[in-house]
Amino acid sequence: MSKIQKILVSQPKPQTERNPYSEMEEQFGVKFDFRQLIHVEGLSAKEFRQQHIHPLDYTAVLFNSRLGIDHYFRLCEEMRIQVPETMHYYCISESIANYLQKYIQYRKRKVFFSENNRFEDLLPAMNRRPNEKYIMVMSDVHNDATIRMFAEHKIEILPAVMYRTVPNKWPDDEPFDYDMVVLFTPTGVHSLKKNFPNLKTGDKVIACFGQTTLAALQEVGLDPDIKAPTPEYPSITTAINKYLENCNE
Fold it and tell me: How many domains does the chain have?
């Protein structure tokens, strides 16, 4: 097992100076670079209209991210749609619900959120409004498990794709000289493989977080060395820490 020195983390840099990555840098003498392999682009109004979804036909919107909020209101503005005061908003967390204040006057009677980051927690509020009609703002790459969960409870949710994830091109004149690459999404995996089509298992230590990311790696013929979450390693940082303990100390 070779010593690890330079690690690419395909996520934004943590906002606080003290974090698990900085602690590992001090402990193991490694260097973490934070660099996203993908970026987000909003669909144009023309592209969105091709889905034949008319936002004013719905009385409620589900959001699972701030990005979704931004692109919902952006598209409504581009299409000259005045979002009515009566619109209801269902959010996966309180922080995302609070972000709505950027666009609307926040009132509890029309904004609902989960305290546990679970859409299932919104079922009681939704069941009290049997005539509500829902759309859920999504990326072009998404998991339909939430849609299926609501369907099992007799609640119909229409997915509305409003933005897409796009691979970032790695500069031709920049070396990809990392000993380890940490991946968090299937789109990050596809970006890595698109930029480096000859990459194979064993060329780099690959760490992945989440079952969908693991499945995407296996689809492109890459076998990760580090996997999380697991019962032993609930976070990707605990899994990386253990790997570095074995090869850098």
Answer: 1
